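User: Hi! I have a protein structure encoded as tokens and I'd like to know what sequence might fold into it. I'm fairly new to this, so please keep things simple.
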């Protein structure tokens, strides 16, 4: 009975993660639609006289030191975070996937060179590498995405390379080679479909980690430009106000980051269960 209850609780937690991620994507779509149609005019960036106003019916999440609405900034930062993370993960996958396939299939000097490069990058701590790359490139949305891309490319390379080495020794691949199939056919028809299954799990886990790294870059002043709403930079600005009792400027961006990371982590567990079946 306890086992069934535990399984039910675990299943509900994983489904909650899926709903959380869907909610954030819905927020992104709504915010993009409103921004494109200029629904709020310039209310996102306009300053008001309500400096450090506490949460109220006028400002649900209060205002910051410049009178900006914390709720709107947090929602905009949600859109930015998902946008940057998606770009970085797609770029990292587009680099790691083909190189991993070729390295694992061809082997030899090609495999040794790329494995050495990727292992060297992988050995550097994630936050340290991202800070260095972001510092060199400077602030910017694409620069932040590229910094995260450099960080996560080796993970996809290592995963796909190892899977390719295992798959290419299978009987059906050897039969295709004996039958005279070219390299392109073997890689894309026989190997690629059989090395893709672990990718969705790694994608969600990397996305959750990338949210934290992006927030860390923003907190250090190395992420997106200062005029762009971002959770990490907002948390940095909120530190000075905390001793004075202004808690809302730190609470809401922090909660938004926490729940997105939590949802992505639970989504990764759900995908793991699905692919194990």
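Assistant: Happy to help. Inverse folding works backwards from shape to sequence: for each of the 277 positions I chose a residue that suits the local structure. Here it is:
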């Amino acid at each position: 009975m306890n086992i069934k209850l535990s399984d039910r609780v675990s299943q509900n937690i994983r489904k909650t993660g899926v709903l959380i991620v869907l909610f954030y994507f819905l927020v992104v779509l709504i915010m993009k639609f409103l921004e494109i149609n200029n629904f709020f005019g310039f209310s996102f960036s306009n300053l008001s006289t309500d400096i450090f106003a506490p949460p109220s019916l006028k400002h649900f999440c209060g205002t910051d030191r410049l009178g900006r609405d914390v709720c709107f900034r947090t929602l905009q930062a949600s859109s930015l975070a998902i946008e940057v993370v998606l770009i970085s993960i797609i770029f990292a996958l587009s680099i790691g996937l083909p190189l991993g396939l070729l390295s694992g299939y061809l082997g030899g000097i090609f495999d040794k060179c790329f494995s050495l490069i990727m292992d060297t990058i992988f050995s550097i701590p994630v936050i340290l590498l991202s800070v260095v790359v972001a510092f060199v490139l400077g602030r910017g949305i694409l620069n932040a995405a590229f910094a995260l891309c450099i960080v996560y490319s080796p993970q996809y390379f290592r995963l796909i390379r190892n899977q390719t080495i295992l798959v290419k020794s299978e009987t059906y691949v050897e039969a295709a080679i004996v039958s005279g199939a070219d390299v392109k056919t073997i890689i894309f028809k026989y190997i690629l479909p059989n090395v893709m299954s672990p990718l969705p799990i790694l994608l969600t886990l990397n996305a959750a980690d990338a949210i934290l790294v992006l927030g860390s870059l923003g907190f250090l002043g190395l992420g997106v430009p200062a005029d762009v709403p971002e959770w990490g930079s907002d948390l940095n600005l909120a530190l000075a106000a905390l001793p004075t009792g202004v808690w809302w400027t730190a609470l809401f961006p922090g909660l938004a980051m926490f729940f997105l990371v939590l949802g992505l982590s639970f989504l990764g567990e759900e995908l793991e269960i699905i692919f194990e079946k």
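A useful reference point when you look it over: Residues 126 and 151 are 6 Å apart (CA to CA). Feel free to ask if any position seems puzzling.
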